[in-house]
Design a protein that fits this description.
Blueprint (H helix, E strand, L loop, with lengths): L1 E10 L3 H17 L1 E3 L2 E3 L5 E9 L8 E4 L8 E9 L3 E9 L4 E9 L6 E9 L9 E9 H8 L13 E7 L2 E11 L4 E12 L4 H10 L1 H27 L3 H12 L3 H4 L5
Antiparallel strand pairs: 1-13, 2-3, 3-4, 4-5, 5-6, 6-7, 7-8, 8-9, 9-10, 10-11, 11-12, 12-13
Length: 267
């Protein structure tokens, strides 16, 4: 078993502002409608590359196909549940010559997000076997996150991590956990921990390989965590610099941003 740990300091968003932004997202999505098979915004512009191929728009069972600008295999998105007051659940199926995958997302209390769960599987080309298979599950308990982040500085960290990711492969299992702690005004300390274990008869081999890679691995891990924290701080800074009207306009434009790229792709 190998355990990697690092703590970073990041900017902390305001919960009320994030909840208001979530409302903007769902307002925009629910303002769309279908025209023929295209999904269009209230102003009549179509969301590029996105078509409704089965069912009723934003209703359980609705199936959409989305084409990227390279006009390759379409991704499929299926609405499993759509109850804005309680839960939204969707499933996405992805296909390409190199791989295929499935991912399911479930968000509770969408207007004031309470938890987000995700699980998925990824397979290599047909006939490639178990070495090319990966599965995973992630959970973010937002209520527990905000509670942990509100504890006084110096308080013991919460026992149960509010954010976790588990990846499973034939060679081993990796677990990531995030625990926030309040730092200075507008700041969080986030404890990032990764635990890697080999599986079954491969445990001794995996343990030996991880031992040999120990120092470079830990150095790379710390660097990756610091880089991720830097990207978070930059993105949050841009987000906080805009008011809700600017964010609403940006959301709308991002929905049609691929118009020029996808104009020649399948519809």
């Amino acid at each position: 078993m190998t355990r990697l740990h690092h703590t970073v300091t990041v900017r902390a968003p305001d919960r009320e502002r994030l909840d208001a932004y979530a409302g903007l997202v769902w307002d925009l999505v629910e303002s769309t409608r279908t025209r023929d098979r295209s999904v269009v915004l209230p102003d009549g512009r179509a969301v590029p590359g996105l078509t409704l191929v089965r069912g009723h728009h934003l209703r359980p069972g609705a199936r959409y196909e989305s084409h990227g600008p390279d006009s390759g295999e379409p991704d499929t998105t299926v609405i499993r549940e759509w109850r804005r007051g309680s839960v939204i659940a969707v499933e996405q199926l992805m296909r390409s010559p190199e791989s295929s995958g499935r991912m399911a997302l479930r968000l509770r209390s969408p207007d004031r997000p309470a938890s987000l769960e995700a699980e998925g599987r990824l397979r290599g080309p047909e006939g490639s076997g178990s070495p090319h298979r990966l599965s995973g599950r992630a959970s973010l308990d937002l209520a527990a996150w905000w509670a942990a982040a509100a504890l006084a500085p110096g308080a013991p960290p919460v026992a149960r991590a509010p954010a976790t990711v588990r990846l499973k492969h034939r060679l081993g299992v990796a677990r990531l956990s995030l625990r926030p702690r309040r730092a200075g005004p507008g700041l969080w300390h986030v404890d990032v921990t990764v635990v890697v274990r080999g599986r079954l008869l491969l445990r001794p081999v995996a343990a030996f390989a991880l031992l040999l890679a120990g120092v470079p691995l830990r150095r790379s891990f710390r660097s990756s965590v610091e880089e991720a924290a830097g990207r978070w701080n930059e993105a949050l800074g841009r987000f906080l610099a805009k008011d809700l009207d600017e964010l609403r306009a940006e959301l709308t434009e991002s929905a049609v941003a691929r118009s020029d790229e996808a104009a020649d792709g399948p519809r």
